[in-house]
Amino acid sequence: MDSGPANNLRQSSIQLESGTGVAATDTKTNPAETTEGVLLDAFSEHQSLLFAVAYRMLGSAADAEDMLQETFIRWQNATKGEIESPKAFLVTIITRLCINHLQSARVKREAYFGQWLPEPLVTAPRQNPLISFEVDESLSLAFLLLLERLTPAERAVLLLREVFDYEYCEIASILDQTEPSCRQILRRARQHIKEVRPRFDATHEQREELLRKFNEASLQGDLAGLVALLSKEAVFYSDGGGKAPALPKPIYGVANISRGILEGLRKRVPKNLVRRFVEINGQPGLLSFLDGNPFSAFTIDVSEGRISHIYVITNPEKLKRLPPLASLSS
Protein backbone atom coordinates (compact mmCIF):
# COMPACT_ATOMS: atom_id res chain seq x y z
CA MET A 1 0.00 0.00 0.00
CA ASP A 2 1.07 3.49 -0.68
CA SER A 3 -0.32 5.20 2.40
CA GLY A 4 -1.66 4.62 5.90
CA PRO A 5 -0.03 3.30 9.05
CA ALA A 6 1.85 0.59 7.20
CA ASN A 7 3.61 3.30 5.22
CA ASN A 8 4.25 5.30 8.40
CA LEU A 9 5.74 2.21 9.97
CA ARG A 10 7.96 1.63 6.98
CA GLN A 11 9.12 5.23 6.99
CA SER A 12 9.83 5.11 10.70
CA SER A 13 11.64 1.81 10.30
CA ILE A 14 13.78 3.29 7.54
CA GLN A 15 14.62 6.20 9.80
CA LEU A 16 15.57 3.82 12.59
CA GLU A 17 17.66 1.65 10.30
CA SER A 18 19.46 4.65 8.83
CA GLY A 19 20.21 6.01 12.29
CA THR A 20 18.25 9.25 12.02
CA GLY A 21 19.31 11.55 14.86
CA VAL A 22 22.35 9.42 15.68
CA ALA A 23 25.72 9.42 13.96
CA ALA A 24 26.52 6.17 12.18
CA THR A 25 29.51 5.56 14.40
CA ASP A 26 27.71 6.50 17.63
CA THR A 27 27.09 3.43 19.79
CA LYS A 28 24.97 5.29 22.37
CA THR A 29 21.24 4.62 22.56
CA ASN A 30 18.95 7.50 21.77
CA PRO A 31 16.00 7.34 24.25
CA ALA A 32 13.56 8.88 21.78
CA GLU A 33 14.62 6.39 19.11
CA THR A 34 14.21 3.49 21.53
CA THR A 35 10.74 4.66 22.48
CA GLU A 36 9.76 5.01 18.85
CA GLY A 37 10.98 1.51 18.14
CA VAL A 38 8.95 0.09 21.01
CA LEU A 39 5.83 1.89 19.77
CA LEU A 40 6.35 0.60 16.26
CA ASP A 41 6.92 -2.96 17.45
CA ALA A 42 3.80 -2.92 19.63
CA PHE A 43 1.62 -1.52 16.88
CA SER A 44 3.06 -3.86 14.24
CA GLU A 45 2.38 -6.86 16.47
CA HIS A 46 -1.35 -6.15 16.51
CA GLN A 47 -1.77 -4.42 13.16
CA SER A 48 -3.39 -7.32 11.31
CA LEU A 49 -5.88 -7.84 14.17
CA LEU A 50 -6.78 -4.16 14.11
CA PHE A 51 -7.35 -4.28 10.36
CA ALA A 52 -9.44 -7.44 10.76
CA VAL A 53 -11.71 -5.71 13.27
CA ALA A 54 -11.97 -2.47 11.28
CA TYR A 55 -12.61 -4.11 7.91
CA ARG A 56 -15.41 -6.28 9.28
CA MET A 57 -16.90 -3.31 11.10
CA LEU A 58 -16.83 -1.03 8.05
CA GLY A 59 -16.88 -3.33 5.01
CA SER A 60 -14.23 -1.13 3.41
CA ALA A 61 -10.49 -1.63 3.22
CA ALA A 62 -10.01 2.07 2.50
CA ASP A 63 -11.94 3.11 5.61
CA ALA A 64 -10.24 0.39 7.66
CA GLU A 65 -6.84 1.78 6.68
CA ASP A 66 -8.00 5.27 7.71
CA MET A 67 -9.00 3.89 11.11
CA LEU A 68 -5.60 2.23 11.41
CA GLN A 69 -3.93 5.53 10.64
CA GLU A 70 -5.93 7.35 13.32
CA THR A 71 -5.34 4.55 15.83
CA PHE A 72 -1.61 4.73 15.18
CA ILE A 73 -1.63 8.49 15.77
CA ARG A 74 -3.50 8.07 19.04
CA TRP A 75 -1.15 5.28 20.05
CA GLN A 76 1.83 7.56 19.49
CA ASN A 77 0.25 10.34 21.55
CA ALA A 78 -0.97 8.20 24.45
CA THR A 79 0.70 8.16 27.86
CA LYS A 80 2.29 4.72 27.78
CA GLY A 81 2.80 4.56 31.52
CA GLU A 82 -0.97 4.24 31.96
CA ILE A 83 -1.40 1.40 29.43
CA GLU A 84 -1.27 -2.09 30.89
CA SER A 85 -2.16 -3.92 27.67
CA PRO A 86 -1.23 -2.41 24.28
CA LYS A 87 -3.52 -4.92 22.53
CA ALA A 88 -6.55 -4.00 24.65
CA PHE A 89 -5.83 -0.30 24.24
CA LEU A 90 -5.46 -0.53 20.45
CA VAL A 91 -8.55 -2.69 19.94
CA THR A 92 -10.57 -0.31 22.12
CA ILE A 93 -9.43 2.73 20.15
CA ILE A 94 -10.10 1.26 16.72
CA THR A 95 -13.48 -0.20 17.73
CA ARG A 96 -14.69 3.15 19.05
CA LEU A 97 -13.37 4.93 15.97
CA CYS A 98 -15.26 2.49 13.75
CA ILE A 99 -18.49 3.00 15.71
CA ASN A 100 -18.16 6.77 15.31
CA HIS A 101 -17.38 6.36 11.62
CA LEU A 102 -20.41 4.14 11.03
CA GLN A 103 -22.70 6.64 12.70
CA SER A 104 -21.57 9.35 10.29
CA ALA A 105 -21.35 7.01 7.31
CA ARG A 106 -24.96 5.85 7.57
CA VAL A 107 -26.19 9.03 5.88
CA LYS A 108 -23.69 8.50 3.05
CA ARG A 109 -24.77 4.88 2.65
CA GLU A 110 -28.41 5.96 2.38
CA ALA A 111 -27.46 8.40 -0.39
CA TYR A 112 -25.26 5.85 -2.19
CA PHE A 113 -26.20 5.34 -5.83
CA GLY A 114 -27.66 1.88 -6.30
CA GLN A 115 -26.81 -1.19 -4.25
CA TRP A 116 -24.00 -0.82 -1.72
CA LEU A 117 -21.70 -3.85 -1.40
CA PRO A 118 -18.58 -4.26 0.77
CA GLU A 119 -15.20 -3.54 -0.75
CA PRO A 120 -13.75 -6.88 -1.93
CA LEU A 121 -10.46 -8.27 -0.67
CA VAL A 122 -8.38 -10.84 -2.52
CA THR A 123 -7.50 -13.32 0.21
CA ALA A 124 -5.63 -15.80 -2.00
CA PRO A 125 -3.08 -15.34 -3.30
CA ARG A 126 -2.35 -13.09 -0.34
CA GLN A 127 -0.57 -9.94 -1.38
CA ASN A 128 -1.87 -7.43 1.16
CA PRO A 129 0.39 -7.74 4.25
CA LEU A 130 -2.52 -6.79 6.50
CA ILE A 131 -4.44 -9.94 5.52
CA SER A 132 -2.46 -12.22 7.78
CA PHE A 133 -5.43 -12.89 10.08
CA GLU A 134 -7.63 -15.96 9.89
CA VAL A 135 -9.95 -15.98 6.90
CA ASP A 136 -13.37 -17.40 7.79
CA GLU A 137 -17.04 -17.01 6.90
CA SER A 138 -17.24 -13.71 8.80
CA LEU A 139 -15.15 -12.20 6.00
CA SER A 140 -17.58 -13.21 3.26
CA LEU A 141 -19.48 -10.54 1.36
CA ALA A 142 -22.74 -12.19 2.47
CA PHE A 143 -21.88 -11.82 6.15
CA LEU A 144 -20.53 -8.28 5.77
CA LEU A 145 -23.68 -7.26 3.92
CA LEU A 146 -25.74 -8.84 6.68
CA LEU A 147 -24.00 -6.66 9.27
CA GLU A 148 -25.54 -3.62 7.57
CA ARG A 149 -28.79 -4.58 9.30
CA LEU A 150 -27.23 -3.86 12.70
CA THR A 151 -26.53 -0.69 14.61
CA PRO A 152 -22.83 0.18 15.07
CA ALA A 153 -22.92 -1.03 18.69
CA GLU A 154 -24.66 -4.28 17.74
CA ARG A 155 -22.12 -4.87 15.02
CA ALA A 156 -19.20 -4.29 17.39
CA VAL A 157 -20.54 -6.61 20.09
CA LEU A 158 -21.43 -9.37 17.62
CA LEU A 159 -18.01 -9.28 15.98
CA LEU A 160 -16.01 -9.04 19.19
CA ARG A 161 -17.95 -11.86 20.82
CA GLU A 162 -18.65 -14.31 18.00
CA VAL A 163 -15.75 -13.67 15.62
CA PHE A 164 -12.89 -12.55 17.84
CA ASP A 165 -13.98 -14.49 20.95
CA TYR A 166 -13.76 -11.65 23.47
CA GLU A 167 -15.23 -12.11 26.94
CA TYR A 168 -18.17 -9.94 27.97
CA CYS A 169 -16.05 -8.12 30.52
CA GLU A 170 -13.56 -7.21 27.78
CA ILE A 171 -16.30 -6.06 25.42
CA ALA A 172 -17.86 -3.97 28.17
CA SER A 173 -14.53 -2.24 28.72
CA ILE A 174 -13.98 -1.65 25.00
CA LEU A 175 -17.44 -0.10 24.52
CA ASP A 176 -17.63 1.56 27.94
CA GLN A 177 -20.78 -0.41 28.73
CA THR A 178 -21.86 -2.80 31.45
CA GLU A 179 -21.70 -6.56 30.92
CA PRO A 180 -25.51 -6.95 31.13
CA SER A 181 -25.87 -4.21 28.52
CA CYS A 182 -23.45 -5.99 26.17
CA ARG A 183 -25.34 -9.25 26.58
CA GLN A 184 -28.57 -7.48 25.71
CA ILE A 185 -26.99 -5.82 22.67
CA LEU A 186 -25.76 -9.21 21.45
CA ARG A 187 -29.24 -10.73 21.87
CA ARG A 188 -30.73 -7.97 19.76
CA ALA A 189 -28.02 -8.40 17.11
CA ARG A 190 -28.64 -12.14 16.90
CA GLN A 191 -32.38 -11.59 16.57
CA HIS A 192 -31.90 -9.11 13.73
CA ILE A 193 -29.88 -11.51 11.61
CA LYS A 194 -31.18 -14.89 12.77
CA GLU A 195 -33.56 -15.50 9.88
CA VAL A 196 -31.24 -14.34 7.12
CA ARG A 197 -27.80 -15.36 8.38
CA PRO A 198 -26.05 -17.22 5.54
CA ARG A 199 -25.58 -20.96 5.87
CA PHE A 200 -22.32 -22.15 4.36
CA ASP A 201 -23.26 -25.71 3.46
CA ALA A 202 -21.06 -26.08 0.38
CA THR A 203 -17.40 -26.99 0.25
CA HIS A 204 -14.80 -24.72 -1.29
CA GLU A 205 -14.47 -27.17 -4.19
CA GLN A 206 -18.23 -27.16 -4.85
CA ARG A 207 -18.30 -23.37 -4.88
CA GLU A 208 -15.33 -23.26 -7.21
CA GLU A 209 -16.93 -25.74 -9.61
CA LEU A 210 -20.23 -23.81 -9.70
CA LEU A 211 -18.38 -20.55 -10.28
CA ARG A 212 -16.44 -22.03 -13.21
CA LYS A 213 -19.61 -23.46 -14.75
CA PHE A 214 -21.37 -20.14 -14.30
CA ASN A 215 -18.51 -18.30 -15.99
CA GLU A 216 -18.49 -20.72 -18.91
CA ALA A 217 -22.25 -20.55 -19.40
CA SER A 218 -22.17 -16.75 -19.27
CA LEU A 219 -19.40 -16.43 -21.83
CA GLN A 220 -21.09 -18.94 -24.15
CA GLY A 221 -24.47 -17.21 -23.88
CA ASP A 222 -25.96 -20.44 -22.57
CA LEU A 223 -29.28 -19.38 -21.02
CA ALA A 224 -30.34 -22.93 -20.13
CA GLY A 225 -26.96 -23.56 -18.55
CA LEU A 226 -27.30 -20.49 -16.31
CA VAL A 227 -30.83 -21.42 -15.29
CA ALA A 228 -29.66 -24.89 -14.25
CA LEU A 229 -27.05 -23.41 -11.91
CA LEU A 230 -29.31 -20.99 -10.02
CA SER A 231 -31.57 -21.69 -7.06
CA LYS A 232 -35.22 -20.61 -7.25
CA GLU A 233 -34.59 -17.90 -4.63
CA ALA A 234 -31.45 -16.57 -6.31
CA VAL A 235 -30.60 -12.86 -5.97
CA PHE A 236 -28.17 -10.84 -8.08
CA TYR A 237 -26.45 -7.80 -6.51
CA SER A 238 -24.22 -5.37 -8.38
CA ASP A 239 -22.42 -2.26 -7.15
CA GLY A 240 -21.10 0.32 -9.59
CA GLY A 241 -21.53 3.32 -7.33
CA GLY A 242 -22.82 5.28 -10.31
CA LYS A 243 -19.32 5.13 -11.81
CA ALA A 244 -19.35 1.82 -13.69
CA PRO A 245 -21.79 -0.63 -15.30
CA ALA A 246 -24.17 -2.05 -12.68
CA LEU A 247 -27.86 -2.38 -11.92
CA PRO A 248 -29.24 0.02 -9.31
CA LYS A 249 -31.44 -2.62 -7.66
CA PRO A 250 -31.08 -6.35 -6.94
CA ILE A 251 -32.52 -8.82 -9.47
CA TYR A 252 -34.65 -11.68 -8.16
CA GLY A 253 -35.54 -14.96 -9.80
CA VAL A 254 -33.78 -17.44 -12.05
CA ALA A 255 -35.15 -16.21 -15.38
CA ASN A 256 -34.61 -12.51 -14.63
CA ILE A 257 -31.05 -13.07 -13.46
CA SER A 258 -30.09 -15.31 -16.38
CA ARG A 259 -31.49 -12.96 -19.00
CA GLY A 260 -30.09 -9.91 -17.19
CA ILE A 261 -26.58 -11.35 -17.08
CA LEU A 262 -26.52 -12.29 -20.76
CA GLU A 263 -27.96 -8.94 -21.78
CA GLY A 264 -25.49 -7.10 -19.57
CA LEU A 265 -22.55 -9.01 -21.01
CA ARG A 266 -23.74 -8.21 -24.52
CA LYS A 267 -24.48 -4.49 -24.00
CA ARG A 268 -22.46 -3.16 -21.06
CA VAL A 269 -19.35 -5.27 -20.60
CA PRO A 270 -16.22 -4.83 -22.79
CA LYS A 271 -15.43 -7.82 -24.98
CA ASN A 272 -11.69 -7.79 -24.31
CA LEU A 273 -11.77 -8.48 -20.58
CA VAL A 274 -9.20 -10.88 -19.13
CA ARG A 275 -10.45 -13.07 -16.27
CA ARG A 276 -8.63 -14.71 -13.38
CA PHE A 277 -9.95 -17.02 -10.69
CA VAL A 278 -8.91 -15.92 -7.21
CA GLU A 279 -10.21 -16.13 -3.66
CA ILE A 280 -12.34 -13.11 -2.73
CA ASN A 281 -13.15 -12.63 0.96
CA GLY A 282 -12.43 -16.28 1.64
CA GLN A 283 -14.68 -17.59 -1.16
CA PRO A 284 -13.94 -18.62 -4.78
CA GLY A 285 -14.14 -15.52 -6.91
CA LEU A 286 -13.42 -14.09 -10.31
CA LEU A 287 -11.62 -10.88 -11.21
CA SER A 288 -11.89 -9.34 -14.64
CA PHE A 289 -9.35 -6.87 -16.02
CA LEU A 290 -9.47 -4.21 -18.70
CA ASP A 291 -6.07 -3.16 -20.03
CA GLY A 292 -4.45 -4.85 -17.03
CA ASN A 293 -6.51 -3.00 -14.42
CA PRO A 294 -9.33 -4.46 -12.29
CA PHE A 295 -12.72 -3.99 -13.95
CA SER A 296 -14.94 -6.14 -11.72
CA ALA A 297 -14.93 -8.56 -8.79
CA PHE A 298 -17.40 -11.45 -8.84
CA THR A 299 -18.28 -14.01 -6.18
CA ILE A 300 -21.21 -16.24 -5.22
CA ASP A 301 -23.05 -17.91 -2.36
CA VAL A 302 -24.23 -21.48 -2.63
CA SER A 303 -27.21 -23.17 -1.01
CA GLU A 304 -28.32 -26.77 -1.50
CA GLY A 305 -25.98 -27.28 -4.43
CA ARG A 306 -27.01 -24.22 -6.43
CA ILE A 307 -26.01 -20.57 -6.64
CA SER A 308 -28.20 -18.55 -4.29
CA HIS A 309 -26.55 -15.11 -4.39
CA ILE A 310 -24.33 -13.36 -6.90
CA TYR A 311 -22.21 -10.32 -6.03
CA VAL A 312 -20.58 -8.16 -8.71
CA ILE A 313 -18.59 -5.06 -7.79
CA THR A 314 -17.54 -2.67 -10.55
CA ASN A 315 -17.21 0.59 -8.59
CA PRO A 316 -13.60 1.61 -9.44
CA GLU A 317 -13.15 3.17 -6.00
CA LYS A 318 -13.68 -0.25 -4.45
CA LEU A 319 -11.30 -2.00 -6.84
CA LYS A 320 -8.25 0.19 -6.28
CA ARG A 321 -6.65 -2.16 -3.74
CA LEU A 322 -7.08 -5.31 -5.81
CA PRO A 323 -3.93 -6.78 -7.37
CA PRO A 324 -3.16 -5.89 -11.00
CA LEU A 325 -3.36 -8.53 -13.69
CA ALA A 326 0.42 -8.73 -14.01
CA SER A 327 0.72 -10.03 -10.44
CA LEU A 328 -1.67 -12.97 -10.97
CA SER A 329 -0.87 -16.25 -12.67
CA SER A 330 -2.79 -17.16 -15.81
Question: What's the quick description here?
Answer:
The chain has 330 residues and is an alpha+beta fold. It is built from 12 helices and 7 strands.
Key features of this structure:
Nuclear Transport Factor 2, Chain: A; disordered N terminus; Arc Repressor Mutant, subunit A; 50% helix; 3 domains; alpha+beta; seven-stranded mixed β-sheet; 330 residues
Describe this structure in words.
- The chain is built from twelve helices and seven strands.
- It has 330 residues and is of the alpha+beta class.
- It has three domains: 111 residues, no CATH class; 57 residues, Winged helix-like DNA-binding domain superfamily/Winged helix DNA-binding domain (Arc Repressor Mutant, subunit A), CATH 1.10.10; 122 residues, Nuclear Transport Factor 2, Chain: A, CATH 3.10.450.
- It has a seven-stranded mixed beta sheet with strand order 1-4-5-6-7-2-3.
- Helix 1 runs antiparallel to helix 2 and helix 3 packs across helix 4.
- The two termini are 23 Å apart.
**SS-based structural class?**
alpha+beta
Counting DSSP H or I runs of 4 or more residues, the number of helices is 12
Name the CATH class of the largest domain. Alpha Beta
Radius of gyration from CA coordinates? 22 Å
Strand arrangement within the widest β-sheet reads 1-4-5-6-7-2-3
Q: What distance separates the N and C termini?
A: 23 Å
What is the H-and-E element order?
HHHHEHHHHHHEEHEEEEH
**Mean model confidence by pLDDT:** 86
Given the C-alpha coordinates, what overall shape results?
A: globular
Largest sheet, in brief, is: 7 strands, mixed
Q: Count the E strands.
A: 7
Write the CATH architecture name of the largest domain: Roll
The portion of residues forming beta strands comes to: 5-15%
| Range of helix content | 40-55%
